[in-house]
Amino acid sequence: MWKYLIEKEFKQFFRDPMLPRIVIVFPIVMMLVFPFAANMEVRNINLAVVDNDRTDMSSELVEKCTESGYFRLKKICSDPREAQKMMDRNTVDAILTIGEGFGRSMVTGDGFPVGIKVNTVNGTKGSIGSQYLSNCIMLFMQSHSDASAVSADSASGAVIEAAPKYYYNPYMDYKVFMVPALIVIAVTMVTGFFPALNIVGEKEAGTIEQMNVSPVNKTAFIVCKMIPYWIITFFMVGMCLLIAWLVFGYVCKGSLWAVFLFTVMHIMVTAGLGLLISNYSDNAQQAMFIMMFFVLIFMLMSGVFTPVSSMPGWARAITYANPLRYYADAMRSVFLKGSSIADVWYDAAGLLAIGSLALTWAIISYRKTS
């Protein structure tokens, strides 16, 4: 009986020519387009300079900032009000103010009259732009620091130098951090929406009545609807890992068996939730909107886009009921750090608990009439 039910589900899946195309095209587009379109490296920051010093030293500072490749110099202003008007009109994103006596201060070391003002309507661009500008100024000042001053500081006390070392992503490449997150999103979208439209599609087509009068029990009916999505998702995850290796040169540091095991547990959650929603929905549109609501909430509170540790306390408490939190953390740990299942057992426990609840609820809520 199980064999024929699984065969029925595969035939039902491939009968729609659009579904297999989505499974192939969607992860390819996610892996090839999104990492380049959603570039985390901010460039082309429009810069206005208010130079009140007008010396060779101030001109050299401006040149140091613009040659970094991150800034585009729009104008050098004499009046700070002119620069402020440009920022108000969104013509510039940052204003660098060089105070009078900057060149003299560089020689004497009596403070550095430099100010930075950034437009933070786009918070990410503003904060990163201010960091870039601050780093350019620091590098400029270090290059012009007086050796005697450094010797005097060394004589007066110990000089402490902090050299950061970045583990798991030594070159701070944002795409390394993004690839596991894209796999998580692709798996969630496919295994969430397709099952949500499964049973409700049979309701609209009228074929669900034939299943209701058959001797098939509810457990076999629900589980057999999930098995094809496990197999389809294995193919999709394998394709994503292959693209990550061929295009970006990234390989999974941990075991591929761990990746697929966590994927199985996550599918049990998303497919179970999709079938649960399908049981309570009367039409495909209703199921689609309900599933969209849950998927958006799961993604925003999963740590895929922003760290869970940065959320307020009440939001962090809610994330413990979010299956994407566990799946995203496990995928990044296995892919980037090479963690084993024993290292992230708490993620496995969370997925198993939520998945068991979703699957059990989906079986109980299916109303089979005979």
How far apart are the first and last residues' alpha carbons, in Å?
17 Å
Q: Strand order, biggest sheet?
A: 2-1-3-4
| Shape estimate | elongated
Major sheet summary line: 4 strands, mixed
Q: What series of H and E elements makes up the topology? A: HHHEHEHEHEHHHHHHHHHHH
**What Rg, in angstroms, do the CA atoms define?**
28 Å
Give the integer mean of the pLDDT values: 81
Summing up helix and strand content along with how strands pair, one would put the structural category as alpha/beta
* Helix percentage: 55-70%
Number of strands: 4
Put simply, the count of helices is: 17
Beta-strand proportion = 5-15%
Outline the low-pLDDT stretches: 150-162
Describe the secondary-structure layout:
Elements: H1 2-15, H2 18-32, H3 34-37, E1 45-51, H4 56-66, E2 71-77, H5 80-88, E3 94-98, H6 102-108, E4 114-118, H7 123-143, H8 147-156, H9 174-196, H10 198-205, H11 208-212, H12 218-248, H13 256-280, H14 284-300, H15 313-319, H16 323-337, H17 345-365
Parallel strand pairs: 1-2, 1-3
Antiparallel strand pairs: 3-4
